[in-house]
Amino acid sequence: MPCDPVETSCRQPGAAPGLPEGMPPLCTFYIYLSDNCNLRCRHCWIVPRFVDGRPDPARNLDPDLLLAAVREARPLGLNAAKLTGGEPMIHPRFLEVVDMLTDEGLSLTMETNGTLMTAEAARHIRKDTALTFISVSLDGADARTHDAFRGVAGAFDAALRGISHLVDAGFNGLQVIMSVHRGNRNQVEAVVKLAAERGVKSVKLNPVTPAGRGSTMERNDECLDFDEQLQLARYVDNELGPRVPVGIYLGLPPALQSLKRLRRTGGSCGDCGVRGILGILGTGHYALCGIGTTCPEFVYGKLGQDSIRDIWLTNPTILYLRRALGDPDGFPEVCAKCIFARDCRTGCVADNYIRTGNLLAPDSLCAEAARRGVFPPARAQRRRGGPINT
Description:
Layout: H1 5-8, E1 28-32, E2 50-51, E3 54-55, H2 63-73, E4 80-84, H3 94-103, E5 107-112, H4 119-128, E6 131-137, H5 143-150, H6 155-168, E7 174-180, H7 188-197, E8 202-207, H8 214-219, H9 226-240, E9 247-250, H10 259-265, E10 277-280, E11 285-287, E12 299-302, H11 308-314, H12 316-324, H13 334-337, H14 341-344, H15 349-356, H16 364-372
Parallel strand pairs: 1-4, 1-10, 4-5, 5-6, 6-7, 7-8, 8-9
Antiparallel strand pairs: 2-3, 10-11, 11-12
Helix pairs in contact: 3-4, 4-6
């Protein structure tokens, strides 16, 4: 059960010829191809727009401007991109963009709701592009559960068709992502088994967080609490995982992972990799990541107008994260004491900011464990020792 490839694609070492010595490379673009979607998912960053019952085409990235950005970023170390959204396949020139990124030599992954995947697109992706890993959202084992969460009738059947098209085309790097909340947690095993039956290689369980529209679910007490998330982790590790033929990934901080999971992951699954990532929103803006959709303070500039090199070398937020994430002695609260500080680096900085107003903060589970006095004592004994590699 190694780390999820989608989460580790930005951690490639090596110097970048276009950067000063010691400057970390910009190795991954998170590309939000559109600022809209054909579904109305209850937990998403964005609020989709519909006209006469159909998705508003809205704003989509200009492929020519994106190509120029890729070529500008290559000397800075760019070697990978994750396509996401909104729904990436809603972009009217989606396959053209994938072909272009492939021609530029980038390693590609994608997150999609799967509903727009056709047999023709699947065959083209499999045979002619660098897209090697695709995550398809599936939030229930039946149409009633999935469609209620995704907000559009027929989404479940369309997602299963999309998965079948990819499997039939011989696509091997296929994952299902399940957004787990109190309304569907009793279907985790059924979703995992359905994914395995459909030829999917792994399942990732993402407990819903109070980001974007998920904040409403949090206020309505629909998100899993501390005890429920740890119970889910124990269930996956000790019961479900050994019984199914697919890998199961669960976003738990390494400090709270079981020894069994730590042996499989090496404890290295907490770091979101933000030090090597630059987001490109569907509006054409550079940003920290998708958080720029709702938090304009994390928008850095715009394609065709602002220099990526200048952003990477001088943006105050990027410089702050680069410095702060390299100094575990300065991490907040329990993070500074944690033996996994060099692996986790406080986890997802976007989630941290949404919960606390600070980019660096203990994961909500670690913070709650510390508050309850149940943070594992053996994992809070890190020796102080100065900066770590950036």
